[in-house]
Protein: Fe2OG dioxygenase domain-containing protein
Amino acid sequence: MKVEHAPEANPNRGYSYVGQENVANISGYEKGVGPGTTRDIKETLDMGCPDDSLVDNLWFPEEGLPGFRSFMENFYSKAFQTELNILSALAITLGISEEHLRLLHCRAENEFRLLHYPAIPASELSDGFATRIAEHTDFDTSTMLFQDSVGGLQVEDQNQPGIFHNVESSACTDIILNIGDSLQRLTNDTFKAACHRVTYPPTVKANDDEIIPERYSIAYFAKPNRNAPLLPLTEFITDETLSAQLTIAIRYMHSQEFVPEGLHRGNTLFQSFRGLNQLSTEQLYELHAKPIQEPVKD
Ligand SMILES: O=C(O)CCC(=O)C(=O)O
Ligand SMILES: [Fe+2]
Structure:
């Protein structure tokens, strides 16, 4: 095999065998039964943008799989065009600048993966620690998912945490669109990332003495440009967000010893009040006094 994925998670390119990637091992993972506890029984082939300036794709020799590379590159570029249309639709729905949202994604620094879940005895998933892919949210802005008819994909109800609903496709060309962490951040939680997982199909019982059929799927992860600032877009910044960001900034500065020891979260009060966003600077000064301006010293 010429296209083995490196043992580390990045760059995310090439073939990963069953057991190589477990989403529950990814740093910051806080879902399901807990970090590092769940095994994914899946194998994947990961690719990225054919013209990525930082990372090359890993391809099989052309004679081994004729036409595969050009087929995949063509799929990538069609998926990118679809992504741009989806971004426009999202911007219109959210009432934000379509051009700005598309510009944040214009470099097509995306990821694209083929997934295969091998056939396994249902009993292998019965202990709750092995699964096809553990529950998680994707890091990206949005994911286009394509699946065969085997079943097992589930999405968590955002109003009832812990309750998962089956997601079925009527054809393998159906696009299932998942919101990812980056869009949640850009919209300051207005759109929440979809928590999803793949388990055994609804017709199979975990303790059944039967074989769960193999399953195939494709995921196209649409991501912001690497150099895009992943801060909430100005349209979504509220006074509460500003207070939270200031608190984080103070904590960071304190941890780096940039500020005198006396200043910390415990004695710093950020007073947030309704209507801050509507006030002009003059009205703000009138209500809450003008700040004392001090020249910046070295
Ligand atoms: O196989 C699927 O349907 C889901 C795959 C997935 O969620 C992922 O790779 O992030
Ligand atoms: Fe996912």
User: Anything to note?
Assistant: The chain has a mean pLDDT of 87. The longest helix spans residues 68-94. The helical segments are 68-94, 98-103, 181-186, 239-255, 281-288.
